[in-house]
Design brief:
Elements: H1 2-24, H2 32-45, H3 49-173, H4 179-196, H5 199-214, H6 220-351
Helix pairs in contact: 1-6, 2-3, 2-6, 3-4, 3-6, 4-5, 5-6
């Protein structure tokens, strides 16, 4: 009984080594573990040793027959693999020769087409850049014109506000306007000073108006001084406005010159692009036949290379499966031999 238990331990240990093999190559109606259980049961129940040996012999015959069948299958698979690999290698060599020959004839025409394509790409890039440049300067001009229109209103409103303040100052000097009316212009002038970014130029006028609004008595000289300051400020604002208009006119002229120059570039580039496209069409016609030959040879080479890779991988799988399965069967026979030795020892013990 101890010997059977020891055998079971050895068998379980061996089975752990080959469990993955048996999982992948499960044999119907054959299980070494079941045979082990049956042997133990028969030994314990006192079954004839001949029955036990027959059971082990049947199992051994099953393993041996299966190995012989697998050897035969593997031999046929190997012959087919060798034949397929040799055939595909020959096809690849033939395709390579054709591809080499046609490539030599293709090189000159292909180089010319590549050069034309490169020039076409550069021309297309330049055309795109000029078109984008034209769009950008148009957008910039639009923004500049919008800014000009907005600031033109600022300038015009500022000049009118200065004129209104000067008019009220003159009325004040003859007693037709109050100090409060004169002071009302301060806020308007200050607002325009900020809008035009000329607070420094407005400072003297605003300071003078502030003094007048706080003075208990206002002299004619104070009023005349304010009017003079307003006249000076008006001239400054008017000069700035005139310069602003002049700068805008210069900007318009520069834009028109840029626009004309870019449009001429676009016309020239479009003609160059059309000529290059026609040249490429002609070159495509010249190399069409050789391209077809080269492509066919390349496709044949790639197709057969893939088939060769697939055949090599499949044949490698056959080899691996054969090696794994054969190893598993050898392990079964090792375990089976151990069982036979145990049974023989039991027979000897019983006979003694």
């Amino acid at each position: 009984m101890k010997s059977v238990a020891l055998c079971l331990v050895l068998l379980i240990s061996a089975n752990a080594f080959t469990s993955d093999i048996f999982a992948k190559h499960q044999i119907p109606n054959r299980n070494i573990m079941e045979v082990m259980v049956q042997v133990e049961e028969k030994l314990n129940s006192g079954s004839p040793f001949e029955t036990i040996n027959n059971l082990l012999a049947q199992f051994k015959q099953s393993v041996t027959s299966e190995q012989i069948a697998h050897d035969d299958l593997y031999g046929r698979q190997k012959n087919e693999c060798d034949s397929e690999i040799a055939f595909r290698q020959g096809q690849i060599q033939d395709a390579s020769k054709i591809l080499t020959a046609s490539t030599g004839q293709l090189n000159i025409a292909t180089q010319q087409r590549n050069k034309a394509n490169a020039e076409l790409g550069i021309t297309a890039d330049q055309l795109t850049m000029n078109q984008q440049h034209l769009t950008i300067i148009a957008e910039v001009r639009k923004v500049e014109q919008e800014t000009f229109s907005r600031f033109a209103v600022y300038f015009q409103d500022a000049i009118k506000a200065i004129d209104d303040a000067a008019y009220t100052s003159k009325k004040f000097s003859v007693g037709d306007a109050s100090l409060v009316e004169l002071a009302d212009h301060t806020g308007t002038l200050m607002s325009h000073a900020v809008s035009l970014g000329k607070t420094g130029h407005y400072a003297a006028v605003l300071a003078s108006m502030a003094r007048l609004s706080l003075a208990e008595q206002v002299s004619q000289a104070d009023v005349d001084r304010l009017v003079q300051l307003l006249d000076t400020l008006r001239q400054i604002v008017q000069d700035a406005y005139n310069q602003f208009v002049s700068d805008n006119n210069i900007s318009i002229q520069y834009y028109n010159e840029q626009k004309e120059r870019i449009q001429k570039n676009i016309v020239r580039l479009e003609k160059s692009q059309a000529a290059l496209e026609d040249q490429i069409v002609d070159l495509n016609g010249v190399i069409a036949t050789q391209t077809a030959i080269s492509q066919a040879a390349s496709n044949k080479k790639q197709r057969n290379q893939k088939l060769l890779d697939d055949a090599t991988a499949l044949c490698g799988t056959f080899q691996s499966e054969y090696d794994v399965a054969s190893t598993g069967r050898r392990q079964e026979l090792v375990v089976l031999a151990e069982l036979e030795r145990l049974v023989e020892r039991r027979r000897a013990e019983k006979s003694g």
